[in-house]
Each structure stands twice: as structure tokens, then as C-alpha cells.
Amino acid sequence: MHPRVNVLGVGVSAINSRLASEAIDRWIQDRQPAYICVAAAHSIMDCQRDPGLRRIFNNARMVTPDGMSLVWLLRLQGHQQVSRVYGPDLLKAVFHRSTQKGHRHFLYGGTEVGLQDLGHRLRMQYPAVEIAGAFAPPFRALTVEEDRNIVELINRSMPDIVWVGIGSPRQERWMAEHRDVIQAPVMVGVGAAFDFLSGSKRQAPEWVRAAGLEWLFRLVTEPRRLWPRYREYPRFVYLAAAQLVGLRSFPFGD
Looking at the 3D structure of the chain, how many domains does it have? Predict the structure, then answer.
């Protein structure tokens, strides 16, 4: 198990992409059910408002540092091996490893057209990897029957990994609710990774991501949708700084 660092009450894993990919390999081999959350600053702030969501994150087998602010916080606390484990990059890293491991993948999220484009691009880049199935759920609450049918569809495809791209915090709730009925050993919530990797949304340049400014790039491209999320970043910085110097404490159990 990799150490978890308390960031405002959420245990963020002190890992990098290689360690995350290796852990996923082990969990598939062990066939032990696990779900993985990718966490940026807005995810931590969502957990601040919602104790139930915080429990979902803390019950995850791994919570990756998906934002540079979290990477810097973990490094300040002595975890120099930490690097950003970004949803799109994690998906590509695991697909690359799957060319040798033979893992089967299921894609859950996005739109039908987006999934077709994503599947085509992934098959072109990783021709030896098997995409066992894909499904684009409706943008509304599912009925009990719809949910049951989706679970049956996923389980019939016998995937090793289910990639869940339905946005945060919806994807984290879905994984927590389904971990006992989805038979795949690993589920990973990857947020907007499907949109970026399918080409339906423009991804920030690598230097922008490395500088920790992807949030600004995305805010400029989608201001109306993302402003409510990013306006909380100054409060995140304040709370994280207060925790770091010992002025505030955020127990895992609260």
C-alpha cells in the first residue's frame, strides 16, 4: 500500500504514474475489487462540503494527485517521488502496459459518438489491447431496470478494468455504489479523459499542465460551466496553507 497524505481530510496517495499502473496490475491479478479516484483541488473542496463524498474518496483503494497543487503539497511534506497522475495520462499508461498484460477494458461514459472516436483512437494507438465494451449512459438518473441492464452488460463483457468518465462527483458515487456488483476487479474514475482523448475537447498544452495552470486554460475555454468549480480555488489554497502550518486540522473521520 502506498502512503496516504491528509489533504483537508482526504487521503491522497503519494504516488506517480508508474506506481499507480503497477498497483492496478497487482489488483487485477489478485482479483480484489477496487476503485480509484483522481483528485484535483475542486474534488477536495467538494469533499469539504459533503462528508458522504469524503467517505467515498477515503474508502477508495487509491486517490491519485490529479492536480499540480496536490503534487506540490505532497512534495512539501517529504514525498519527493510524487508526480501528477492525470486521468488521461493514467488511462494511456495502463493501456500501454496492457499491450503486454492482455487486460480487457470497458469504457463507461461520454456520448455514443465520443466513444466511437475514443475507441478508434485507442485501437489505432494500442492495436494489441482489447476494448471489451463501451456504453454511454444518459445524462439523467438511471431507472432501477436501466442500472441493472448496464451492470449485466459490463459483467458479460468480462473486463479487467472499467474506465468511468461521467464527471466528478457523479463517477465517484457510481463506483462506490457499484463496487459490489461490477465483477471487474478495478474501476477508475477519469473525469473528462474521454473528451480529451477522443478529441471532442481541446486539451491544455503540456507546459500549461506542468505549470499547474490547466484550470485557467479550461476556465477560459468553458467559463460558464467551470466557473462555479474554480472560484473555490483561493479558499483551497487558504485551507491547505493553514493545515500545512498547523493552524487547522482536518481529521479523516470527519
Answer: 1
